[in-house]
Amino acid sequence: MNDFQKELCANLSRYCKDTIEPHMEHDDAEGKFNMDFFKGLGSYGVTGVTLPEIYGGAGLSYLDYCYILEEIAKTSVPYAVTISVSSMVQTILNEYGNQKQKEKYLPALASGEEIGAFALSESHAGSDAGALKTTAKKTEGGYLLNGTKMWITSGGIAKTYIVMARTGGEGSKGVSAFIVRDGAKGFSFGKAEKKMGWKTSPTRELVFENCFVANEDLLLEEGKGFMVAMGGLDRGRVAIAAIGVGCAQRALDEAMKYSLTRQQFKQPIFDFQGLQFMLADMALEVMSSRLMVLSAAQTIDDEKTSSKLCSMAKLKATDAAMKVTTDAVQVLGGVGYTSEYPVERFMRDAKVLQIVEGTNQIQRVVIARHLKKEYEQHA
Ligand code: CAA
User: Fold this and answer.
1) Residue with CA closest to ligand 1 atom 1
2) Ligand 1 midpoint to CA 309 (Å)
3) I need a surface site. Which of 94, 172, 342, 368 has the fewest CB within 10 A?
4) Residue 171 CA: which ligand 1 atom is closest?
5) Exactly one of 205, 357, 374, 376 is catalytic; which is it?
6) Is 357 one of the catalytic residues?
7) Which value, to the nearest 10 degrees, does the dihedral of the CA atoms of residues 168, 172, 175, 181 take?
8) Do the Cβ atoms of 201 and 216 come closer than 8 Å?
9) Architecture of the domain delimited by 232-377
10) In CATH, what is the architecture of 117-222?
């Protein structure tokens, strides 16, 4: 970390610990998202980290962004996720949007005044995203959207949605991407999901019933929606990986603190070699994940984004988060399973990191397809 990154993370850490942390246990139990916390994070410039300054972003690197997400995730995985998904929407608009779209939608997202959401999944089209059924039929001046999107992070609290819908035939080539605003006629919210973790981040169904979207809110052109979604997800997966690192680091911190103070058999439990090996393995998982995340982030900064490396980082860091948080609960024993300590919350929050933005099985599919291509090219 350079001096700038250290200072930014130290300031963020103070804000998270002083302002968000005291509410996490209660808000997790109540399933309560707090917009003031999100706006507070926005005041540190972290709700639009990589967006250019002309659109209100901080104009920082993806590497900076990963350190920032890691820092926030040490206090709250759900708030880090809200930022990462909203940032993915900004990345998509900045990369694939036209000038008018960027000027219209980006500043409010970058400042943290508004939240962005990404709507790809449907009940029968999760991993097989190209099979989505929501339709966008041409009408005068725009399109009429019909269908239902499922498991949408920030559904209901977001104002700007990137919605993938079918304008053409079957498969990925028939998919287009649209910008839809909360409040659009024919756009409503379905059921709010009851989840194991990420309780302070709402997950909601989106319902489109003859929802009119103007031509000017189509991204790129018809048929480019799958590419838009996949391009956004490549980078989004690295952000999820960075959150995994923060989640795992916090669990390790809690396990270390506890093991050094908890006495059993007249000694700190840390002094048992069985626990030392476990903690050493946890630290190894955290560090190896962080290095992979930073390596993937560097390729993004170098404009050499590698889908393979993005998937590898997501797979490694989120599997590590699950393992390290589970082990942290084990180190704390009975008390680790209660809400007296935060490790059980981080364990619950880690689980869905292995599922969102492509399950870790899908990450293996992406990696294997790239491997095949590379080896066939060199055969
Ligand atoms: N960047 C740009 N284009 C890409 C791409 C990428 N990373 N990956 C694929 N494409 C293009 C391909 O080049 C191809 O185009 P051509 O035919 O012109 O070459 C087209 O997209 C189709 O590609 P595939 O044949 O590889 O597509 P597929 O149907 O076999 O699916 C998949 C590939 C990797 C399995 C993909 O469906 C996938 O990633 N599934 C997982 C879906 C997912 O991640 N959902 C996340 C939901 S959002 C979420 O969780 C966010 C949240 O709220 C937290």
Assistant:
1) 231
2) 15
3) 368
4) 29
5) 357
6) yes
7) 160
8) no
9) Up-down Bundle (1.20)
10) Beta Barrel (2.40)
Task: Give the whole-angstrom CA distance, residue 124 versus residue 259.
Answer: 45
The domain spans of the chain are 3-114, 117-222, 232-377
With residue 208 as reference, give the H or E element that holds it. Answer: strand 203-214
Quick one: 3-114 is in which CATH superfamily?
Acyl-CoA dehydrogenase/oxidase, N-terminal domain (1.10.540.10)
Which residue carries 């819908």 as its tokens? 165
Q: Which structure tokens are listed for 235?
A: 């980078």
Write out the chain's pLDDT in tens, 379 residues: 999 999 999 999 999 999 999 999 999 999 999 999 999 999 999 999 999 999 999 999 999 999 999 999 999 999 999 999 999 999 999 999 999 999 999 999 999 999 999 999 999 999 999 999 999 999 999 999 999 999 999 999 999 999 999 999 999 999 999 999 999 999 999 999 999 999 999 999 999 999 999 999 999 999 999 999 999 999 999 999 999 999 999 999 999 999 999 999 999 999 999 999 999 999 999 999 999 999 999 999 999 999 999 999 999 999 999 999 999 999 999 999 999 999 999 999 999 999 999 999 999 999 999 999 999 988 7
Packed helices 35-42 and 77-96: angle between N→C axes, nearest 10 degrees: 60
Location of structure tokens 């996720």: 81
Query: Which of the listed residues 227, 237, 304 should we mutate to test ligand 1's pocket, taking the one with most ligand atoms within 8 A of CB?
Result: 227
Closest atom of ligand 1 to CA, residue 131: 29
